[in-house]
Amino acid sequence: MNNSVLIAHTKDRVGVTSELTSLIADGGCNIEHLDHFLDHESYQFFIRIVFDPSNEVHDAIHRYFNAHPDMHYELHLPNQRQKMAIFVSKMDHAMMELILRVRAGEIPVEISMVISNHDTHRDLVEQFGIRFHHVPFNKEIKARAEQQMIDLLDGQADFIVLARYMQILSPEFIERYKFKIINIHHSFLPAFIGAKPYAQAYDRGVKLIGATAHYVTSELDGGPIIQQDVLRVNHRYTKDELVVVGRHVENRVLADAVMWHANHKVLVHGNKTIVLGV
Ligand SMILES: Nc1nc2c(c(=O)[nH]1)N[C@@H](CN(C=O)c1ccc(C(=O)N[C@@H](CCC(=O)O)C(=O)O)cc1)CN2
Questions:
Q1: ipTM of this predicted complex?
Q2: pTM for this one?
């Protein structure tokens, strides 16, 4: 992306949009895109502005928000590709979807590493020139394994994607990367939380299966939802066939969520997200 992106949220009041767009216009910059949302329960106002970059405007924006400490903002400059770390276990479809979309230039990030609790996908990952780290993980060695992952991640990852990574991360680990860990859960949450959601769906006789991408919190599968989708099925599908067709909806949902996160479109508000610019 060759533009600057300003995202901000504040208690609602008349004139916020005008003040911010005037800052940009006064600096002679064109606005490519603007999206905003007013939450009528909290009266919080959210805005995302995409504009032609200018150091003068960037400085004016920093001065404005320094003068308005009650307002929260992020200013993302052009060509600042975020570093994404992918965590994977045995199922490789979601990881491969991201690798191929990044390789195709669809998702504007750099994949800085893949971390897995299995060594299975080393050759597959390294053939794309991506660093692969095998970090064994189980309840007994969880603390040591997470410290090993932190040592690998610090300074090398702006956010993490759990691409069907099947180990439960500790609250301490999650707090360190608050709202920087995206997980793809293979059900239409809040249905079928926890392990083996396709088996749960099969046993329930559902007519729709789904996938949910969410930020990871200490509440298992309970974090703010970023994207979801569903696929129609029927009584003829076996449990294994649900798993196979489900991969496609998982891939589509995860790619949307990662693309939006990478383009600074997702804002967290309570335990929900606001996705601007889609
Ligand atoms: N802290 C979190 N860690 C992880 C999450 C999460 O939401 N919060 N998501 C999982 C991936 N996942 C679903 O998408 C998932 C993986 C594994 C299990 C599971 O085995 N659950 C067992 C209990 C395991 C345990 O307590 O260690 C069960 O429910 O019986 C559930 C969901 C990745 N990490």
A1: 0.92
A2: 0.96
